Amino acid sequence: MPSSLTYPGVYIEEVPSGVRTITGVATSITAFIGRAQRGPLNSPVRVQSFAEYTRIFGGLWQPSTLGYAVNQFFQHGGADALVVRVFNGDATAGAATLTLDTAGGALVLEASSPGEWGNRLSATVDHLTRDTDDTLLFNLLVQEMDGPGGTTAIASEVFRNVSVDPASPRFVDTVLNEQSTLVNVRTSAPADESPTDATVHVANPDGTATAEGTLGANGSDITDAQISGDQDERTGIFALEAADLFNLLCIPPLTRSDDLDPGTWADAAEYCQDRRAMLIVDAPSTWTSNPTTAIDTAETGINNLRGDIGNNLAINAVAYFPRLRMPDPLAENRIAEFAPCGAVAGIMARTDVQRGVWKAPAGLAASFSGARGLSYTMTDQQNGILNQVGLNCLRSFPVAGHLVWGARTLAGADLLASEWKYLPVRRFALFLEESLYRGTQWVVFEPNDEPLWAQIRLNLGAFLQTLFRQGAFQGASPRDAYFVKCDSETTTQNDIDRGVVNILVGFAPLKPAEFVVIKIQQIAGQIAV
């Protein structure tokens, strides 16, 4: 009621309705971890197109599989990705530098990230500032050229009226470190001397270092150590701690010929379980190195991989076999083999948009774009061997093309009889968990009694009813499809005394029609007309 009733008259008071709408979270934000030519290190960067990835991370690069996976993700329907670049080497030594001389010292700039891309940088200084009497002011033009010592700029940044005076609001160190995407300041200039007018390049046209520059380096091929990372330093997979949400995790092969170690897959699966995400596992290329034993190798390999990851973590992992054969734009479009994780993640994203996260990302609609074949073509019987051990197969069919033909989690082996056998069921459960987790934050510190419980039932029930109308549950009525229970039975007086409110949510998931049986019978005798 109003804080005080002092005068005779009518008082207006707005009364809360208790309606707090729960919004479903995204279902197909895909995180990628791997090696790139350029870009921030161990930081999840959101990209929403391959053009954006190219601008930030350099696009396709022959020594790395990351760019191909991201490209295939967007090619197959993906729309939202988080990219984590890892680096094997000394990041500081790998960053190219530019030295701008002053009368008694130098302002040393470094490329914003390590890599040979920094060898194309140049910097130009002039003193045509707003106050020509201020000798500490200068203008700085930073350019990325079309090659070492090149003449055409492909990216330019202009910083006018910057100063070497640390007390200035236009202090060059602060301005560059906060605003430039090309360079940072490695060594500050003397506070009383601005750089002299000059244009300097990191490298000569032949790629050798100039007198004013040191060359950048791409580092070595990444290893499992860079992927596993360090939780305290937030590197590798733990760089995703800075990301609010991701639903799928793709880790492309380390190189064109090196696959991840099973221990790395186990680390990634454990992290995905903590973050309510699914890990997409690529079958090693060695499984098809001998076509005559490929199926036996794959069956043994998936069982070993599940053993390394553990059955408790396998519910948040999904594996696909074999690999895709697609044109390689960096090799005159000759056919090469690619791990399918990026393309499969794109198909999942496309299916989520078209049908919902409860629809299995497999079948005739789950077709690959641009694929010319698979690294191994299997028969129905061979598919049956791998399907019952939880390995999802990629198949080729006449007319239909190349399809995803499996929708089981890594815990989907028949022998395990897991309740999380099917991928859409697990993904839908993760979607519900994350949505309800975020949508019930308002409950914390509310009075723990029947009025609160009624609001919880109202809001969770409204969210689940919306999903029911979209066809997300089994059952012909809401009673058959889901329930929300929050009352004195779920929350006892002892729970109340401890500040606990218990909410029980049940749902009947849709399960894919994995096996379609058509029974045909010959009719004997006469048929009445």
Automatic annotation (TrEMBL):
<dbReference type="InterPro" id="IPR052042">
    <property type="entry name" value="Tail_sheath_structural"/>
</dbReference>
<feature type="domain" description="Tail sheath protein C-terminal">
    <location>
        <begin position="418"/>
        <end position="522"/>
    </location>
</feature>
<dbReference type="Pfam" id="PF17482">
    <property type="entry name" value="Phage_sheath_1C"/>
</dbReference>
<protein>
    <submittedName>
        <fullName>Phage tail sheath family protein</fullName>
    </submittedName>
</protein>
<dbReference type="InterPro" id="IPR020287">
    <property type="entry name" value="Tail_sheath_C"/>
</dbReference>
<comment type="similarity">
    <text>Belongs to the myoviridae tail sheath protein family.</text>
</comment>
